[in-house]
Amino acid sequence: MNRYGLPFITSNNILIATINGAGAAIELIYVLIFFLYAPNKQKAKILAMLILVILGFAATAVISVLAFHGKNRQLFCGTAATIFSIVMYASPMSIIRLVVKTKSVEYMPFFLSFAVVVSCSCWFTYAMLGMDPFVGISTGVGLALGIVQLILYFIYCDKKILNKKTTATDESQQNMGNGYRNNVKCNNDEKQSNFHEQV
């Protein structure tokens, strides 16, 4: 979507270029931090994915410049941007199966889903006012997927709290049991010590 907003692709889309450029920079920083602290096995996987993304972006840029002109270039870049944006918005949905299976939203942070809904709502409105179908389609899909995530969160959020309470109760009971066994052991040791002294 960042390339779609460039002046030689579309006109009057400085907002799209700005926000996507900033987002790309932030995500690159995140990837670099992850790459620094991740295990070696994960580093290889992330590096391969990063190289694949860079090659894909480079291929899209070269094809759009050499093979397309005018409206056709805008259509090509807009379609590619829409597809990649939908993939980005759909990526958190991979966790839905785990959420439904475990009946817990522990692995689906609320604020990420909420931010997706707010962002997509703003950009969808912008796209409708500006009659931009590429931004409208991608953010419309992202908005729908974000709403699905929020619905799942509100369905299973009570069970997350319940699981935490259950875990805390189990740990408390375990600690009480360990304390009771320790007290019994101390009492037995004390009795044996008194018995030996009397003997």
Low-confidence stretches: none
| Shape-level CATH architecture | Up-down Bundle
Strand percentage, roughly?
A: under 5%
Tell me the name of the CATH class: Mainly Alpha
Shape annotation: globular
Helix content: over 70%
Largest sheet: none
Order of helices and strands: HHHHHH
**C-alpha Rg (nearest Å):** 28 Å
Work out the count of structural domains: 1
Number of helices: 6
Structural class: mainly alpha
Task: Provide the CATH topology.
Answer: Monooxygenase
Mean residue pLDDT = 76
Number of strands: 0
Distance from first to last alpha carbon: 88 Å
Architecture blueprint of SSEs:
Elements: H1 14-37, H2 40-67, H3 71-90, H4 96-102, H5 110-130, H6 133-198
Helix pairs in contact: 1-2, 2-3, 3-6, 5-6
Structure explained in plain terms:
With 199 residues, this protein is mainly alpha-helical. Helix content is 83%, strand content 0%. It has helices spanning 14-37, 40-67, 71-90, 96-102, 110-130, 133-198. Helix 1 (14-37) runs antiparallel to helix 2 and helix 5 (110-130) packs antiparallel against helix 6. The mean pLDDT is 76. The chain crosses the membrane at residues 14-37, 46-68, 80-100, 107-128, 134-156.
